[in-house]
Specification:
Number of domains: 2
Structural class: mainly alpha
Radius of gyration: 30 Å
Helix content: 55-70%
Order of helices and strands: HHHHH
Largest sheet: none
Number of strands: 0
Distance between the termini: 108 Å
Length: 123
C-alpha cells in the first residue's frame, strides 16, 4: 500500500489555451482624451493623451478592436493635433485687443450689477 499507482487512462495531456484578446480602457482613453485636450487646450492633458495614444498604438496587435473603433494611428494623429493646439499660442500669439475688450466687458458688467444692487436696496 506504500507505492502510488498511476493509471495511464486517467492522465490528460495539458494543452495551453491562450486568453482571448481584450479591449482595454486605453482604447477609450485614446479616443476621448485627444479631443478633450483640443477643446480645453490643456498642456498636461495633451501630453497625457499623447502618451496614452503611443501606448495604445504600440499594443494594438494585442487588442481586439470593434468594427466602429478608430484605428490606433488615427488616435495618435489626433493626440499630435491636440499637442499642437495646446502650444498654438507660441506660434500664433493672441492680439492684445481681446484683453482690452475683456476689460470693457468687465467694466460694463460691474456698472450693471452696481445699478441693480442700488435699485434693489433702494440706496
Amino acid at each position: 500500500m506504500g507505492a502510488s499507482v498511476i493509471r495511464e487512462d486517467l492522465v490528460v495531456k495539458y494543452t495551453h489555451v491562450p486568453p482571448e484578446a481584450r479591449n482595454p480602457a486605453t482604447g477609450m482613453m485614446a479616443q476621448t482624451m485627444p479631443m478633450a485636450s483640443m477643446f480645453m487646450r490643456n498642456k498636461m492633458m495633451s501630453w497625457a493623451s499623447f502618451c496614452i495614444c503611443v501606448q495604445h498604438y504600440m499594443n494594438f496587435r494585442n487588442v481586439k478592436l470593434s468594427e466602429d473603433a478608430n484605428s490606433p494611428l488615427m488616435s495618435l494623429i489626433l493626440a499630435t493635433i491636440g499637442l499642437v493646439t495646446a502650444y498654438i499660442d507660441i506660434l500664433v500669439p493672441t492680439p492684445q485687443i481681446k484683453k482690452k475688450a475683456a476689460e470693457t466687458v468687465a467694466d460694463a458688467v460691474t456698472s450693471v450689477v452696481a445699478t441693480a444692487v442700488e435699485t434693489a436696496t433702494g440706496i
